[in-house]
Amino acid sequence: MIPELGHFALALAVALAFAQGVIGIFAPGLRDPRAMRGAPALALSQFLAIGAAFLALIYAGVVSDFTVENVANFSSAQVPLLYRITGTWGNHDGSMLLWCFILSLCGATVAAFGNGLPASLRARVLGVLGLVSGGFLLFTLTVSDPFTRLWPPPLDGAGVNPILQDPGLAFHPPVLYTGYVGFSVAFAFAIAALIEGRIDAAWGRWVRPWALISWCFLTAGIALGSWWSYYTLGWGGYWFWDPVENAALLPWLTGTALLHCAIVVEKREALKAWTVLLAIATFSLSLSGTFLVRSGILNSVHSFAAAPNQGLFILALLAITIGGSLLLFAIRAPILAATGIYAPLSRESALVLNNIFICSIATVVFVGTLYPPFVNLLFGIQLSIGAPFFNETVLPLAGPIILAMGVGPMMAWKRAALLPVLRQLWLAAAVGLLVFLVMAANRHVIAALGLAGGAWVVMAALTDIAGRIRLFRVSAGSSLARLWALPRAAVGATLGHIGFGMMVLGIAGMTLATQKVIVLKPGQSTQLGGYTWTLDDIHDAPGPNFSQRVADISLSENGKVFMTLHPARRFFSAQKVITNTAAIRTNGFQDIYAVFAAEPPGSGGAELRLNRHPLAPEIWLGGLVMALGGGISLSDRRLRVGAPARKKPAGAVA
Amino acid sequence: MSPLRRRLLFGIPLALAVAGGEGFYIILRRMQENDYDPHALPSPLIGKRPPAFNLPGADGMQGFSNTDLLAPPKPMLVNWFASWCVPCLQEAPMLMKLAKTGLEIWGIAYQDHPKDLANFISTNGNPYTRLAADASGLTAINWGVYGVPETYFIDKQGIVRWRYAGALTDDVVSGTLQPLLQKYA
Fold it and tell me: Is A381 touching B (CB cutoff 8 A)?
């Protein structure tokens, strides 16, 4: 009964979404205020309908209703409650519903909190969101229905993929999807602006919080995914340049560019068409990333493939959404003229430079990801592009960004002078240089460059903040008061840059990692990274829906044991799958990482993979700090209070 | 900029998207007709000689270049590996077994430190007749190496006939490698 209600709610949502789309887009043209008010109401009802469908699916998963095919195939009565819930979106059909749910949540948020928007703009934005939502809901309902019944039901479900039975992965998809889907709002604002033919500072101010919140979620989602692969896949890697990872990285890159150039629109009313294009591109890349990966076109370790007829449906949806919006852009964008002018050396130019470099990286990643299938298609040549290509091409492009990142935020709007800025940054430059020289003396040139770059970015961001609060030039209390009074957006931006610097430090630190693969018998020990690693024992241990073998390893320095690790090998009997659970201990500046890889027959011992990863935690910590910076920036008063003031000139509000 | 050129400029994103969409459409159609398998890990080298390279030796052994692979006296393997890779460790006994049968195996250590490499060879044995080091990883890009371990089968004309990404297992050896050895003997 409940699944049927869910199915009905899903069908209802399709109708509501299309009604929202049509009314939202056409009502402003009719100048009918009552019709325009219909759009928010429809957006809220659509959200309620999808919410009901989503809850129905979760309910089916929680009570293990195996008459629902989705639950029978991807869940099991033995799986812990958390994974029975998360399992509902750990597969293609269920994740589609989650995707649509988040999209409707975005629409409902615009409807509920967009009272300050002009009624016509709000209606149009909701209309665009309604059409996108309607298309994907129709897809879910017709060709990937998560409520399909199965009769007779099996006694038990096939179970959740053991790799997915992990708290990190349970929350990775919703967070990542919120990031992907959140960019739909910036996209809808861009389309609405193209329809209205008007973009001004107020528009920039509305779009930026939406781009910012999606960016925060996307950053956190990517960091979670990377962290998960680091501790689960068991060989200590954190980024593999897999097509699915690239699919998430691309909208992150263009989204980062969007975030920066929306500031220029807001403050200076320049770069309008470019900002609109970035908003369209970011959402288009989110869509392509989520869906082309599933069509099975791209070769990936993330097996999420759908049937080819679903692929064609998705392609048609993408063609309408992306093609339609770019067509509108080609027709309408040429009339958007910049009003603000700026000198070649100014904050605006620095942000343009940032955009150029970020978009170059995005282009390289995009081409590298799509080159193999397209070359095969055009010339029949088969080739593969892997991590070596991306490492060689992306890292050199990241260098200029890192250098410019320190200087850019301190440049003045309209016209700036470089020399005074550089003079303020002497300390950051000196620290960077010192780090480089110390590391280069130890012959780690790559690590030296990376660590110096990371230190430069962090120090430059701190210098910027120190200058603003006049640290050491006025009393500490007065500095603190100034810090409190700073615009939150400035604090957030600084934190974002610090987070990025930390991530660079972490990535550079990882190049200094030491590791060893070794077979040890109980009682034997080995040396690595200045520590003595001893295998004390190998024993069995019980688990809820798996059995496991655990290796007890103790680490000692100068004969004193200071840490014990318990990596395990888990056997999931339902799926006949073995997973390696790594043991990771961190002190915030380095990870001690041990994997129990195998028990080679005849050796009587354990094959262990031992790693010491300096600065590894900074990679994810940096991601978290970046997302946190975005969050603080979001709480800026100006974003909340200033937004409705479209009639006022921009300067008066700022 | 003239208005027309400005219009054309703004049409570029659309043109790119249309071209991309059409490509994806054709790929999807061919996938439906089972004409195209994106999940096969194809190697661009099959049927060709390896691209030009010249790598120094490692661990006191002689390195090699593409000219050394032009006409081996009998079919041979080139094995990409690294001391830091777990599957390579699992593969090591199999390589030792193959080397004992008289099969010539040349190794290329991918982005490895000399000390770790020496350690790896001394613990796991040395199946390689020659051992080169690709410290920069650039030769790996030219070969289209997807990840280590990866093994290339080279016939007497120096042409790559087969590539296997991943650790060689009993099944792969008896099912694919042995027939190849007979075919190209």
Answer: yes
- d(CA A373, nearest CA chain B) in Å: 7
Q: Please give the Cα distance from A169 to A638 (Å, whole number).
A: 36
Residue B46 lies in a domain: no
Q: Over the stretch B151-174, which tens digit does the pLDDT of each residue have?
A: 999 998 899 988 888 888 888 888
Cβ–Cβ < 8 Å for A408, A354? yes
Counting the structural domains of chain B, the total is 2
Backbone phi and psi for residue B12, each to the nearest 5 degrees, phi listed first: -60, -45
Cα-only R_g, chain B: 21
**A323 with B14: Cβ contact below 8 A:** yes
**Out of B14, B44, B138, closest to residue A326 by CB:** B14
Q: Select the residue of B13, B46, B86 nearest A329 (Cβ to Cβ).
A: B13
Q: ipTM of this predicted complex?
A: 0.78
Cα(A40)–Cα(A24) distance, integer angstroms: 8
End-to-end CA distance of chain B: 67
* Inside any domain, residue B141: yes
Task: Residue B36: list chain A partners with CB under 8 A.
Answer: 376
Q: Does B85 touch chain A (CB under 8 A)?
A: yes
How far apart are the C-alpha atoms of A378 and A247, rounded to whole Å? 22
| Tokens 């974003």 found at | A639
The Cα A330–Cα B173 span in angstroms is 57
CATH number at residue B94: 3.40.30.10
Domain limits for position B79: 54-183
Nearest to A315 among B25, B120, B140 (CB): B25
Alpha carbon distance B101, A187 (integer Å): 63
- DSSP characters for A576-596? TEEEEE-EEEE-SSEEEEEEE
Cβ atoms of A473 and A418 closer than 8 Å: no
Radius of gyration in angstroms for the set of CA atoms belonging to chain A, rounded to a whole number: 27
Shared domain check, B108 and B79: yes
Interface contact B7, partner A, CB < 8 A? yes
Co-location of B120 and B175 in the same domain:
yes
Residue B45 lies in a domain: no
* Cα–Cα distance measured from residue A603 to residue B90, given in angstroms and rounded to the nearest whole number: 13
Question: CA separation (Å) from A431 to A420, A427, A615?
Answer: 19, 6, 18
The packing angle between helices A272-294 and A167-196, to 10°, is 140
Nearest to B17 among A296, A322, A516 (CB): A322
My answer on whether B101 and B154 are in the same domain is: yes
B32, B121: one domain: no
Q: How many Å apart are CA A78 and CA A83, to the nearest integer?
A: 10
Give residue A385's pLDDT band: very low, low, confident or very high (50, 70, 90): confident
* Paired sense of beta strands A606-614 and A514-520, if any: antiparallel
Contacts of B66-74 with CB under 8 Å at 24 or more apart are: B68/B130, B69/B106, B69/B154, B69/B158, B70/B158, B71/B156, B71/B157, B71/B158, B72/B104, B72/B154, B72/B156, B72/B158, B73/B156, B74/B104, B74/B156, B74/B185
Residues in chain A with CB shorter than 8 Å from the CB of B3 are 334
Is A329 touching B (CB cutoff 8 A)?
Answer: yes
* Per-residue pLDDT tens over the stretch A570-627: 887 766 677 788 888 888 888 888 988 878 777 778 888 888 898 989 999 999 999 9
**CA dihedral (A635, A641, A642, A644) positive or negative:** positive
Name the phi and psi angles at B40, rounded to 5.
Answer: -65, 140
B88 and B177 fall within a common domain: yes
Nearest CA in chain B to A512: B113
- Torsion sign (Cα): B28, B30, B32, B38: negative
Q: Which chain B positions have a beta carbon within 8 Å of A516's beta carbon? A: 116, 119
